[in-house]
């Protein structure tokens, strides 16, 4: 067994039975270019219901560099990646590479990341030059990144997913972020260190379909904005001030009409009705904004574990080989 640097791949799997073995073959084929490194492939089965776990355990039988962690239910992509990072951190990996298991993130790019890391980068994130996704996905992602960039206090690079390499030093900090509603790319952007972008072309999914339906995407977007910005809270007082100023002006107008043109006094029924619903709507939205932050606070106060593991099958790295 080689004694080079330990590079751990963190690979979340949710219902990928159709493509996972092909994925592993391609990844392994790409990594043979670097026999000087010690690779570990940490697969996290995120409560798949399609037999992905059998494929993973079979892969581990054949390749001792495979580690399998299996969740007791589906916890979501961000939590699956977190579990993989925790494992790699405990195993003392020198660097981790986070990568999707549907071949949308090309394995060859991860080796370019390793080269950048070797020349001194602490974080190398893959930035999409092009992507083969639906128009809807591209449009919603574009709108989300625009909003996030305007609101977030940390600069979070655009067109960047979770495909990235993280050095041990940076990983030590990342694993300390234990928020429950996680937006990992924001967390990584937040820690500082030397971060570099690597441009790549994102492929289409190799098999199966996206496991990120609109509802999960909205949740992730909310986690990004609520987790890294208090702008929505500040916006409440701004909206309030604007409406108050407008209502004072409207009041002055009504008084002026009454004083100077008593014959035309402002008839207010329609205005009153619309205004009431308008204000009611605004108030409910604002309560919702506060509610979102209160809800997040509540979840953090409960401080439940982030995930529950049903099965852990360590690869060779744990069995005393260093
Ligand atoms: N994934 C996961 N848990 C989930 C949803 C997705 O672990 O609840 C994994 C999935 O197997 C894949 C990666 O996260 O490796 C990205 O998911 P997907 O390709 O469906 O997202 P998209 O590329 O469409 O954004
Ligand atoms: Mg995908």
Automatic annotation (TrEMBL):
Keyword Transmembrane helix assigned: yes
Q: Where are the transmembrane segments?
A: 239-261, 267-294
Q: How does it sit in the membrane?
A: Multi-pass membrane protein
Q: Which Gene3D superfamilies match?
A: Spore Coat Polysaccharide Biosynthesis Protein SpsA, Chain A (3.90.550.10)
| Residues annotated as domain Glycosyltransferase 2-like | 10-172
Q: Which GO terms describe its molecular function?
A: glycosyltransferase activity
Tell me the compartments it is located in: Membrane
Q: Does the record carry Ribonucleoprotein as a key word?
A: no
InterPro entries given in the database record: Glyco_trans_2-like, Glycosyltransferase_2, Nucleotide-diphossugar_trans
Pfam families, per this entry?
A: Glycos_transf_2 (PF00535)
Question: Single GO cellular component annotation?
Answer: plasma membrane
UniProt entry keywords in alphabetical sequence: Glycosyltransferase, Membrane, Transferase, Transmembrane, Transmembrane helix
Q: Which family does it belong to?
A: Belongs to the glycosyltransferase 2 family.
Q: Return the PANTHER family for the record.
A: PROPHAGE BACTOPRENOL GLUCOSYL TRANSFERASE HOMOLOG, UNDECAPRENYL-PHOSPHATE 4-DEOXY-4-FORMAMIDO-L-ARABINOSE TRANSFERASE-RELATED
Stated name of the protein: Dolichol-phosphate mannosyltransferase
Record the organism: Nocardioides baekrokdamisoli
């Amino acid at each position: 067994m080689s004694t080079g640097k330990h590079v751990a791949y963190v690979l979340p799997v949710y219902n990928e039975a159709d493509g996972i073995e092909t994925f592993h073959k391609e990844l392994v084929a790409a990594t043979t270019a670097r026999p000087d490194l010690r690779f570990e492939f940490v697969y996290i089965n995120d409560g798949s219901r399609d037999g992905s776990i059998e494929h993973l355990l079979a892969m581990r039988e054949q390749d001792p560099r495979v580690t399998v962690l299996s969740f007791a239910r589906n916890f979501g992509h961000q939590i699956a990646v977190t579990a993989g990072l925790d494992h790699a951190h405990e195993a003392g990996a020198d660097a981790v590479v986070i990568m999707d298991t549907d071949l949308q993130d090309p394995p060859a790019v991860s080796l370019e990341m390793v080269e950048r890391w070797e020349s001194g980068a602490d974080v190398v994130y893959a930035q999409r030059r092009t992507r083969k996704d639906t128009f809807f996905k591209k449009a919603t992602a574009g709108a989300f990144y625009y909003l996030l960039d305007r609101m977030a206090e940390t600069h979070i690079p655009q067109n960047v997913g979770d495909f990235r390499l993280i050095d041990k030093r940076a990983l030590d900090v990342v694993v300390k972020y234990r928020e429950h509603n996680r937006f990992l790319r924001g967390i990584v952007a937040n820690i500082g260190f030397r971060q570099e972008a690597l441009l790549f072309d994102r492929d289409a999914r190799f098999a199966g379909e996206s496991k990120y339906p609109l509802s999960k995407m909205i949740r992730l977007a909310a986690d990004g904005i609520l987790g890294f910005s208090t702008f929505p809270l500040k916006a409440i007082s701004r909206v309030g001030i604007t409406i108050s100023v407008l209502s004072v002006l409207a009041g002055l107008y009504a008084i002026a009409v009454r004083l100077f043109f008593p014959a035309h006094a402002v008839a207010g029924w329609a205005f009153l009705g619309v205004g009431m619903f308008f204000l009611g709507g605004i108030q409910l939205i604002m309560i919702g904004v506060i509610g979102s932050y209160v809800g997040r606070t509540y979840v953090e106060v409960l401080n439940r574990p982030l995930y529950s593991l049903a099965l852990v099958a360590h690869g060779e790295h744990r069995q005393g080989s260093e």
